[in-house]
Specification:
The structure holds two protein chains of two kinds. By secondary structure, chain A is of the alpha/beta class. Chain A has two domains: about 230 residues, no CATH class; about 100 residues, abc type-2 transporter like domain (abc type-2 transporter like fold, 3-Layer(aba) Sandwich), CATH 3.40.1710. In chain A, about 65% of the residues lie in helices and about 5% in strands. In chain A, strands 2-1-3-4 form a four-stranded mixed beta sheet, sandwiched between helices. In chain A, helix 2 runs parallel beside helix 9, helix 3 packs across helix 6 and helix 10 runs antiparallel to helix 13. Chain B has a domain of about 170 residues: 3-Layer(aba) Sandwich (Rossmann fold). In chain B, helix 6 links the parallel strand 7 and strand 8. In chain B, helix 5 runs parallel beside helix 6. The longest helix of chain B is centred in the C-terminal third of the chain and has 16 residues. Chain B starts with a strand and ends in an 8-residue tail after the last helix. Classes of the chains: A alpha/beta, B alpha/beta. At the A-B interface, helix 1 and helix 8 of A face helix 2, strand 6 and helix 3 of B.
Chain lengths: ~375, ~250
């Protein structure tokens, strides 16, 4: 047991002496959370729109005012003829145009049905969809408010409610994703690199010649990164609650335990990589290509798994981050209890156990 | 002289697929002896040493190290040997004292013993004022001397040195060999591989491997008589020419 503490102390010294790496390990999650939170967002704020109003009546002006007032749009351009539309879009300054036909109010009042045309710049389909949804929403709201004043006997109203994330914030989505990414990078990559470095330096031979039990070497290697990850989990959660206003709906103890489980998954994956790789570069490449990319691409955090081709959907099941992402989203955002995520937790725990057993078996006591 | 046998090797063989790296070698090394292990690159000397250290499984044959059987008591062997590889075996980003403490720690020395050893080692190597310096900042010769002292920190019965003086200047090599003599004098068996023929002269007995076999094993003087050569270099070249294997 005493040998063990000497080993852990040594690992901490390595980490402590390598200030640059330590700065990256602590700084990275904070940077990622801030970048994802403020820069890389799917939300559209203050998009410039153009208005082509042939009707110029109370209703059309009312709708335009509503749009201008909302934080999604800025009416930046008032056009007078359709030919100007093309130019407005080509200049790239306008993302959406709203066109009111000349008999808009007349149709509305006499025919009970009027049409507004929304023209969106669909070079970025996501933005186009988001903008037209926002615009539709504003028009619906305006209509509902009007209708409230003079109720019609027959009308079908569609009502949307955005559950769990009423403001449609992107942060709700990426906080669990960033957590998965950071834990994968810190634990898997750093553990594998630190073990492979000993192989490269020749110090691994000295360890293997010594009476220290190999499994203890492995565990000692993991301890500093486990602690580091716990600190990172803490900083991510604090940032998301206090800076990004993403509340933790579920049980904090459950959430943190799930995070620690995933940390151990990542650590054992790192160990597995280190038993295959013979140089630090190879270890880093395998971690990036084999762990980091699937975590980003297939966990459902960037691209919804349901929209993927069947083959990728099947593959995504073996990506541990997918399960972790699901669990964290449900516990943290939806506030679900363990009863709802026990299956996913079991799958993750099973994977962890599997990787652990394989990698400890593969960790060679003797270098052949 | 009636001394105890420290290393006993019988028909030890290592094959990698079709390639026989070490071919049924047999020899004994006495306690307190400096045993030189020579051979061209690829002759199999590192493989042989690695088997004796427990880093590699023998394909066949048997060996005892420090009185323990390689096949049945590898853990006891580990406690009674020291090892220093041709690659530098200390951590560059730890200070000298931290390196000593770490290696002392994994060999199960008590805090008291570690402290005494550290003081003693810094004193003998005249490194008192460098105690907190990062090992990486020291010259190679110093590092090798510290690495040797660290390999000896738990007073092993046998110490294995794999080309310990590679790339070190002649003066430091001389000093290094003084340390080896002192260790042997104190009763430690020194098993050393080298490419330097002047170092071969310093050994009590020398074993020359060619193509995985032992071609010669005797004291440097008797080998020189046998091969009618003025120095070990001549002996080595005569034997190494027989090699059919190329560098590898």
């Amino acid at each position: 047991m005493k040998q063990f503490t000497f080993f852990i102390r040594k690992e901490f010294l390595h980490l402590w002496r390598d200030r640059r790496t330590m700065l990256i390990l602590f700084g990275m999650p904070i940077m990622q959370i801030l970048i994802f939170g403020f820069a890389l967002t799917n939300e559209v704020k203050n998009a410039r729109i153009a208005v082509l109003d042939f009707s110029k009546d109370n209703t059309s002006r009312g709708i335009i005012d509503e749009m201008n007032a909302s934080r999604y749009f800025d009416v930046g351009l008032y056009l007078s003829q359709p030919a100007e539309l093309e130019r407005a879009f080509q200049s790239g300054t306008v993302k959406l145009a709203v066109v009111f036909p000349s008999d808009f109010q007349y149709d509305l009042l006499h025919g009970n049905q009027a049409t507004v045309q929304l023209i969106a710049d669909a070079t970025d389909p996501n933005v186009a969809t988001t903008l037209s949804n926002y615009a539709t929403g504003i028009i619906m709201d305006y209509q509902a408010a009007q209708r409230g004043a003079q109720p019609l006997p027959l009308s079908i109203k569609t009502e949307f409610r955005m559950l769990y994330n009423p403001q449609l914030k992107g942060s709700y989505n990426f906080v669990p994703g960033v957590m998965a990414m950071v834990l994968m990078l810190v634990c898997a990559m750093m553990t594998s690199i630190s073990i492979v470095r000993e192989k490269e330096m020749g110090t691994m031979e000295v360890i293997l010649v010594s009476p220290i039990v190999p499994i203890r070497v492995v565990i000692a290697k993991m301890v500093p990164y486990l602690i580091l990850s716990a600190a990172n989990i803490g900083s991510i959660l604090l940032l998301s609650v206090f800076v990004l206003d993403v509340p933790i709906q579920g049980n904090l103890v459950l959430l943190v335990s799930e995070c620690l489980l995933f940390t151990i998954t990542a650590l054992s994956l790192g160990l597995l990589i280190s038993s295959v790789a013979n140089s630090q570069q190879v270890a880093m490449l395998i971690s990036l290509m084999g762990l980091f990319l699937p975590t980003v691409m297939l966990s459902g955090f960037m691209f919804p798994v349901e929209n993927m081709p069947i083959a990728l959907q099947v593959i995504s099941n073996i990506v541990p981050a997918k399960w972790f992402y699901y669990i964290v989203r449900n516990v943290m955002i939806k506030g679900l209890t363990f009863d709802y995520v026990w299956k996913e937790t079991l799958i993750l725990a099973g994977m962890t156990l599997f990787f652990m057993v394989v990698s400890v078996k593969k960790f060679k006591t003797r270098l052949e | 002289m009636n001394r105890e046998v420290a290393i006993s090797v019988r028909e030890l063989t290592k094959r990698f697929g079709d390639f026989t790296a070490v071919n049924a070698i047999t020899f004994d090394v006495m306690q307190g002896e400096i045993f030189g292990f020579l051979g061209a690159n690829g002759a199999g000397k590192t493989t042989a040493m690695r088997m004796l250290c427990g880093l590699s499984f023998p394909t066949s044959g048997s060996a005892t190290v420090g009185g323990y059987d390689l096949a049945t008591d590898p853990e006891k062997i580990k406690r009674s040997i020291g090892y220093m590889s041709q690659k530098f075996s200390l951590y560059d980003d730890l200070s000298i004292v931290e390196n000593i403490r770490y290696y002392g720690g994994i060999y199960g020395l008590s805090d008291r013993e570690i402290k005494d050893k550290t003081d003693q080692l810094l004193h003998t190597l005249h490194l008192e004022d460098q105690a907190k310096a990062m090992t990486g900042s020291l010259p190679l010769g110093w590092k090798q001397k510290i690495a040797f002292s660290v390999a000896m920190v738990h007073q092993p019965k046998v110490v294995f040195l794999d080309e310990p003086t590679g790339g070190v200047d002649p003066v430091t090599r001389r000093e290094f060999w003084t340390m080896i003599y002192e260790a042997a004098h104190a009763g430690t068996t020194v098993f050393v591989t080298t490419h330097y023929m002047d170092e071969a002269e310093y050994c009590d007995r020398v074993c020359i491997m060619v193509d995985g076999r032992i071609e010669a094993l005797d004291t440097p003087d008797r080998l020189k008589d046998q091969f009618k050569s003025a120095n070990m270099e001549g002996v080595f070249i005569q034997l190494a020419r027989k090699a059919t294997r190329t560098d590898g």
